[in-house]
Design brief:
84% of the residues lie in helices and 0% in strands. The chain has 17 helices and no strands.
């Protein structure tokens, strides 16, 4: 339901708003998104993985996350002009200041959301996500239709986060405590620090493409690229984020039974591939038609990036559970170092891609550099749960084979239609 609503609202707004509006949002979301990744100091992961923490420790960690989030919110609002000067777009300062509220709202959600996950209360987790999606999409449609322009993309995000925050507090009321007696929280604080570094590195390497595109190619090119990324990632991330809302509670509960963990990993990897591979393959094959029919000719420069990024999203889906295996078995240190390694590999790949292929080269760089950056983590997880390559490939093979057949059929039909028109 959320995916249908998101797609409808996104495509509707794209016909009203300009590519430059999406370019400005992409510029502003680089710093905002980074702080949203680290605003809870990694305590959401620590609280979920470590099931031995007392209620008092949880409340004090929640209070510390809230203080940290409030500090980051204030810093982000004050630094808006710096980011605007970097991009040479004055309006970025106001957008960053407004979106800084997301950091504080996210920090408020940490403990209530973790409690729902620990209780395996997936019905209400899904309900909160659906409410947030409805609020985001409804606000976007209303404001875009009313001529709000760029600010429709700003206000809708804040509205969705506010609705989710209220809903979570209604479901799991929480009173944070002042984070005193930190010596007794040494273990969780160290794990939280490692998660903070991991998330900062992950966000930096996953957004280096937009940072480079905005700096080198300008807001128009960035608008096309960011929207292509949005279309390519929306269906796959809806699928993987759905799984990610279930996996933490399940994997953390099964972390001491490695055979059970292996069984979950293979079964869920196969399920994800059945859903994600056909969507990504279909988007890659029909990108020119999707852009022309759904968005119009002003978005034609997004066709090739959409094709390239659809391939990347299939690769992303194939390994998305690897990090979950490491996280929910408590291997925070290894996750940190793997994330820092990706921070080196991916930006280098983006620079090479832009150097030789411009916007298209930047998009195709994902499909080459990303698998290389993930290989060490895959090898570590393989040893941890005694995963055999044959079993891993067999989990992916049925969906991959189906996509090859589908691709042949689509290409053949497209050729027949084109020859008939000729």
């Amino acid at each position: 339901a959320s995916q249908v609503i998101s797609w409808g609202g996104t495509l509707y707004a794209a016909r009203i708003l300009a590519p430059a509006d999406y370019g400005v949002i992409a510029m502003a979301m680089v710093p905002v998104g980074l702080l949203r990744m680290i605003e809870d100091f990694g305590f959401d992961t620590v609280l979920l993985q470590n099931r031995d923490l007392s209620d008092d420790q949880v409340a004090r960690l929640g209070g510390l996350a809230l203080l940290f989030g409030a500090l980051l919110t204030a810093c982000l609002a004050l630094l808006g002009p710096v980011f605007a000067a970097f991009y040479g777009e004055p309006v970025v300062a106001d957008v960053v200041a407004a979106l800084s509220l997301l950091v504080l709202l996210d920090a408020l959600q940490v403990v209530p959301r973790v409690r729902l996950q620990r209780d395996l209360d997936f019905f209400w987790l899904g309900a909160v996500y659906l409410m947030q999606t409805v609020a985001v999409t409804g606000t976007l449609i209303f404001l875009a239709s009313g001529g709000a322009g760029l600010w429709a993309l700003v206000i809708n995000t804040i509205a969705g986060s506010a609705v989710a925050t209220v809903a979570l507090f209604v479901l799991r009321p929480f009173i944070p405590l002042w984070p005193g007696r930190l010596a007794g929280l040494r273990g969780p604080l160290l794990s939280g620090w490692r998660m903070l570094v991991s998330r900062a590195a992950y966000y930096a390497n996953s957004n280096a493409d937009q940072l480079l595109a905005g700096r080198v190619l300008g807001k128009e090119a960035l608008g096309h690229y960011s929207f292509a990324m949005s279309i390519a990632s929306l269906p796959v991330q809806e699928i993987t984020s759905l799984v990610s809302r279930v996996v933490p509670g399940i994997f953390s509960a099964a972390q001491d039974d490695r055979k059970l963990l292996l069984r979950y990993f293979l079964a869920l990897t196969e399920a994800i591939s059945y859903l994600a591979f056909p969507v990504s393959c279909g988007l890659a094959l029909t990108a020119s038609h999707v852009i022309a029919v759904a968005l119009g000719p002003q978005w034609s420069d997004a066709v090739v990036p959409l094709q390239a990024l659809s391939i990347y999203m299939a690769l992303f889906a194939a390994q998305t559970l690897v990090s979950h295996v490491l996280l929910w078995t408590g291997h925070f240190r290894q996750v940190m170092w793997f994330s820092l390694l990706s921070l080196v590999v991916l930006p280098v790949g983006f620079l090479i891609g832009m150097r030789f292929g411009g916007l298209a080269g930047l998009a195709y760089a994902w499909s080459i550099a990303y698998p290389l950056s993930c290989l060490p983590a895959i090898l570590y997880a393989k040893r941890l749960i005694k995963l055999r390559w044959a079993d891993y490939l067999n989990a992916l093979l049925p969906a991959a084979t189906g996509c090859l057949v589908m691709a042949g059929a689509v290409i053949a039909v497209d050729a027949l239609v084109s020859s008939g028109q000729g």
